[in-house]
Design a protein that fits this description.
about 120 residues, mainly alpha, Arc Repressor Mutant, subunit A, Diphtheria Toxin Repressor, domain 2, 2 domains, two-stranded antiparallel ribbon, 2 strands, about 70% helix
């Protein structure tokens, strides 16, 4: 099943939060994304039903293997694209915001070409 951009954003947020703290709850996701608790609750239910996340009895969220793979892919795209834009002279805030938009729409072929260019010519 194809995951929509919003689902990818939630998975990426769960990954980022899980790197920052041991436990992730819906309230953490809501605060990080600046979304309402009911919106996040609906999204978590959908991600759980689609087997991208697991939740325990205390409401702690964990990514499934599938969810983690998607989250890591989006997170990698975000970081590489933001760094590329900053190396081109774009300020960090703009580069980060633009990378967030691009990461969901860029083709795998184009992204792989960007990664190859980065490997070939270095990160700096």
């Amino acid at each position: 099943m194809e995951l929509k951009e919003s689902g990818e954003m939630y998975l990426e947020t769960i990954l980022i939060l899980s790197k920052q703290k041991n436990i992730v709850r819906s309230i953490d996701v809501a605060e990080y994304m600046n979304y309402s608790k009911p919106s996040v609750s609906r999204a978590m239910a959908k991600l759980r039903a689609e087997k991208y996340i697991l939740t325990d009895g205390d409401g702690y969220i964990a990514l499934t293997e599938t969810g983690r793979n998607i989250a890591e892919k989006i997170y990698e795209r975000h970081n590489i694209l933001a760094n590329l834009l900053m190396r081109l002279g774009v300020d960090e805030a703009t580069a980060t915001a633009d990378a967030c938009k691009i990461e969901h729409d860029i083709s795998e072929k184009t992204f792989e070409a960007i990664k190859e260019h980065q490997r070939k010519y270095g990160k700096d």
